Amino acid sequence: MSIEIKSRYDGRVLYTAKNASDVRRALEEAVKASADLRGADLSGAYLRGADLSGADLRSAYLSGADLRSADLRSADLRSAYLGGAYLSGADLRSADLRSADLRSADLRSAYLSGADLSGADLRSADGLAPEVCNDLLILLDQPGKIRAYKLVNERGEGPQYGGIEYKAGETVEVPEANTNPDIQCAAGINVATLPWCLKNWQPGYRVLVLEFTKKDIAAIPVGDGKFRLRRAKVVGEKKIDPVALGLVRVEEKVAV
Description:
Elements lengths: L2 E4 L6 E5 L5 H10 L113 E7 L18 E3 L15 E4 L1 H6 L6 E7 L4 E3 L6 E4 L1 E8 L18
Antiparallel strand pairs: 1-2, 3-6, 4-9, 5-8, 6-9, 7-8
């Protein structure tokens, strides 16, 4: 039986397995042939126990796919959509899951040693221990004052919701900050790593330095680079060179 694997974007045929009995075998054949499977539409596919080690599945659509006990070692799943996928018992060692969408995925007993989950959306993912994928949990073991960065707009407010003006030397408090780590952006003082701030930077924006202690932390979501505080003090501003950092073209005029 002939089975075609098509692109999620335009329906283009990415690979044709002429003698495969099902999608699982067709996909295994495509992987062995080093087929370019970027953007493959595999929504709801039954791939339980499939050997997909080293597969190039960047931006593939795997919503609701059954990948239980599948071998995905060193697979490239960057920006893949795995929302609601069944990955329990899957071998994801050294898999590249950067910016993958894993919302509501079942990751119980999945083997994630060496997997890169930076930027992945893990909201409501089942069975994933934050300790294995959230580098920012190191903040909870700091004994004294901690510093992080706050991106603000021209008015000195957070660029998304505003409402709080951050002024040098002042302490800001949000007693009712959201404490749910499954929510990426919510009420509180949202601070982040410097790479997160630079990724979201726009001309006219500034990067402030805020100081706090671990008891001031409200929530540390997984994989975003951003977290929330109840209380923090504005202790400085991080000077950045937008041109040197590649944030703007050399010929553009930059408001700083």
